[in-house]
Amino acid sequence: MLQDTSASAAPAAQSNAEAMKAMGFDHLIHNFDPLGWIVFVTLVIMSFSSWYFIIANAIRNGMVRGRAERVIQGFWGNNSTQDAIRVLEEQPKGEPFSKIALDAASAVAHHQQAAGGRLAETLSRSEFIDRALRQAVARESLRLEGGLTLLATVGSSAPFIGLLGTVWGIYHALIRISSSGDASMQAVAGPVGEALIMTAFGLFTAIPAVLAYNFFNRSNRLTYARFDEFAHDLHDYFATGARVEAGVAPVVVKK
């Protein structure tokens, strides 16, 4: 009797082992239907896109924050405005602090050239510089936000796209059960495996995007604060000829 039980258990165990193979990724790829391929390809594109922006933003933000103090001190450390502007012009194209200062200097030069004209009558020197600084800060802030919309979209939608694949896999499992009347592991392993893999893939796509979005948002807020601080100092300097710092006597820089 024991021998018969062992003999019947062996084929069952072997059948379950074969069924578990049907839950693997290789079986999933070879048994995709059109909707499965659409879900899978969409998640792959979203994953690669989010990782591209994660790496690109990490490199860019690291370079901006690494150069920020050097650029700011390089501007204020010069004894003349012309020398400071030359230092700013030597900065890389994507360096934001130098571009903000250069826009302010350009606004001053433009206002001086228009002295006595309608521009000077319409806007004072201070107002013209303030407008230029606001535009420059807004422009550079917008550049720092590149890719954040995509990360937010991936983080919020990828789990639901994966869930669509999950529902579709469960639907296939139910169709097999209803058509064959067989609810064994071997009959439903493939569709259930598809459902589980799609769920995991959707989460693996979304989680890095959500974490990166929150991290870059926090990092950008700190950079925006530095933009505003630098812009206020630039406005004071170009409008009055002296850098005004709280609790410190105005620092006059030679033109």
Task: Explain what the structure shows.
- With 255 residues, the chain is mainly alpha-helical.
- It has helices spanning 2-21, 25-30, 34-76, 81-89, 96-113, 118-122, 125-144, 148-180, 185-240; strands spanning 242-245, 248-252.
- α5 runs parallel beside α9 (185-240), α7 (125-144) runs antiparallel to α9 (185-240) and α8 runs antiparallel to α9 (185-240).
- It starts with a helix and ends with a strand.
- The model is unreliable at 1-10 and 247-255 (pLDDT under 50).
Task: Supply the key terms.
255 residues, disordered C terminus, mainly alpha, rod-shaped, 9 helices, disordered N terminus
Outline of the structure:
With 255 residues, the protein is mainly α. Helix content is 82%, strand content 4%.
Unreliable stretches (pLDDT < 50, length at least 5) are: 1-10, 247-255
Task: Note the quaternary state here.
Answer: single chain
Class by helix and strand content?
A: mainly alpha
Going across the biggest sheet, name each strand in turn: 1-2
Share of helical residues: over 70%
Number of helices: 9
Quote the distance from N terminus to C terminus.
Answer: 105 Å
Please indicate the percent range of residues in DSSP E strands (runs of 2 or more): under 5%
Tell me the total number of β-strands.
Answer: 2
In this structure, how is the largest beta sheet organized? 2 strands, antiparallel
Order of helices and strands: HHHHHHHHHEE
